[in-house]
Amino acid sequence: MEKVGVIGAGVMGRGVAQNLAQSGVNTVLVDLSEEILEAAKEEIYNSVRLQSLFKKAEVTESPQEVLGKIFFTTDITLLNDASFAIENITEDWGKKEKVHKMLNSICPENCNILVNTSCISITRVAAVYNHPERVIGTHFMNPVPLKTAVEVIRGYHTSEQTIQETECLLKKMGKESIVINDYPGFVSNRISHLMMNEAAFIVQDGIAAPEEIDEIFKKCYGHKMGPLETADLIGLDTVVKSLKVLYESYQDSKFRCCPLLRKMTDAGLHGKKSGKGFYEY
Ligand code: NAI
């Protein structure tokens, strides 16, 4: 059976690992400490339990059965026989570069490297590899097990074979692939981060409260979530890091981070994952 390595067990990595395990894929989930892995186990357990309680008719396996298909480890060298490695670590180029250098030396030559990032250029990541044609972007949406499409990013060197094999894996996970070309922020985040950032400026300027801004998007535009609810769900720390990448990549002041966002993250308000952001959880 195919073995898929998932690196990073935070908000996205644990969702990807759960989705893979529920699709019958042999999954190895890697993070830096046992403590983080234990937290991921608990989150996956709760997520599967909620899925079966609230809706998904197709959820037939118990949380224990799903967890039984995931091997939790701090040892990244276990990916030496993986067919796919899906990297979901912190949105920080220095950290990502180190992990990709490791993956380049550990993973087999024919292993597809899937990069889950909000904004970092896939071509930049691929430059670390001896086989850049195997590197591709997979911008999963949050929460991963519930979302039905993935923004797939073709780097400068990404081969057709890599695209096809990635699309196959994503199909197995119940997801449609929308393939686009590589530029920082891709399509989704190049647009959505401008909206979230501008919404934060509107709060900072005292023009409207978060609830009012989000209601306008939901009730007037028919969006499922407003920009500030979305920012809280993503994690305000991740939004700030992504804006930094966009600002540096395009050298364009339209991506300058709203000071209120920076102040909130400095104060430990990271959104839903920390219990407080623009809203309380
Ligand atoms: P997070 O902060 O929740 O989790 C990141 C995880 O990476 C942490 O558990 C951390 O311990 C781990 N990590 C850091 N360095 C590592 C290393 N050297 N080896 C193994 N694990 C390591 O971040 P989140 O939200 O899961 O984001 C992950 C990536 O996905 C980022 O690049 C982000 O931009 C992207 N993304 C995030 C979305 C969101 O809604 N949060 C949506 C789509 C993409």
TrEMBL record:
<dbReference type="Pfam" id="PF00725">
    <property type="entry name" value="3HCDH"/>
</dbReference>
<feature type="domain" description="3-hydroxyacyl-CoA dehydrogenase C-terminal">
    <location>
        <begin position="185"/>
        <end position="281"/>
    </location>
</feature>
<dbReference type="GO" id="GO:0016616">
    <property type="term" value="F:oxidoreductase activity, acting on the CH-OH group of donors, NAD or NADP as acceptor"/>
</dbReference>
<feature type="binding site">
    <location>
        <position position="31"/>
    </location>
    <ligand>
        <name>NAD(+)</name>
    </ligand>
</feature>
<feature type="binding site">
    <location>
        <begin position="8"/>
        <end position="13"/>
    </location>
    <ligand>
        <name>NAD(+)</name>
    </ligand>
</feature>
<feature type="binding site">
    <location>
        <position position="273"/>
    </location>
    <ligand>
        <name>NAD(+)</name>
    </ligand>
</feature>
<keyword id="KW-0560">Oxidoreductase</keyword>
<feature type="binding site">
    <location>
        <position position="96"/>
    </location>
    <ligand>
        <name>NAD(+)</name>
    </ligand>
</feature>
<dbReference type="InterPro" id="IPR008927">
    <property type="entry name" value="6-PGluconate_DH-like_C_sf"/>
</dbReference>
<feature type="binding site">
    <location>
        <position position="118"/>
    </location>
    <ligand>
        <name>CoA</name>
    </ligand>
</feature>
<feature type="binding site">
    <location>
        <position position="118"/>
    </location>
    <ligand>
        <name>NAD(+)</name>
    </ligand>
</feature>
<dbReference type="InterPro" id="IPR006176">
    <property type="entry name" value="3-OHacyl-CoA_DH_NAD-bd"/>
</dbReference>
<dbReference type="InterPro" id="IPR013328">
    <property type="entry name" value="6PGD_dom2"/>
</dbReference>
<dbReference type="Pfam" id="PF02737">
    <property type="entry name" value="3HCDH_N"/>
</dbReference>
<dbReference type="InterPro" id="IPR006108">
    <property type="entry name" value="3HC_DH_C"/>
</dbReference>
<keyword id="KW-0520">NAD</keyword>
<feature type="site" description="Important for catalytic activity">
    <location>
        <position position="139"/>
    </location>
</feature>
<dbReference type="InterPro" id="IPR036291">
    <property type="entry name" value="NAD(P)-bd_dom_sf"/>
</dbReference>
<feature type="binding site">
    <location>
        <position position="47"/>
    </location>
    <ligand>
        <name>CoA</name>
    </ligand>
</feature>
<protein>
    <submittedName>
        <fullName>3-hydroxybutyryl-CoA dehydrogenase</fullName>
    </submittedName>
</protein>
<dbReference type="InterPro" id="IPR022694">
    <property type="entry name" value="3-OHacyl-CoA_DH"/>
</dbReference>
<feature type="binding site">
    <location>
        <position position="56"/>
    </location>
    <ligand>
        <name>CoA</name>
    </ligand>
</feature>
<comment type="similarity">
    <text>Belongs to the 3-hydroxyacyl-CoA dehydrogenase family.</text>
</comment>
<dbReference type="GO" id="GO:0070403">
    <property type="term" value="F:NAD+ binding"/>
</dbReference>
<dbReference type="GO" id="GO:0006631">
    <property type="term" value="P:fatty acid metabolic process"/>
</dbReference>
<feature type="binding site">
    <location>
        <position position="91"/>
    </location>
    <ligand>
        <name>NAD(+)</name>
    </ligand>
</feature>
<feature type="binding site">
    <location>
        <position position="142"/>
    </location>
    <ligand>
        <name>NAD(+)</name>
    </ligand>
</feature>
<feature type="domain" description="3-hydroxyacyl-CoA dehydrogenase NAD binding">
    <location>
        <begin position="3"/>
        <end position="182"/>
    </location>
</feature>
<comment type="pathway">
    <text>Lipid metabolism; butanoate metabolism.</text>
</comment>
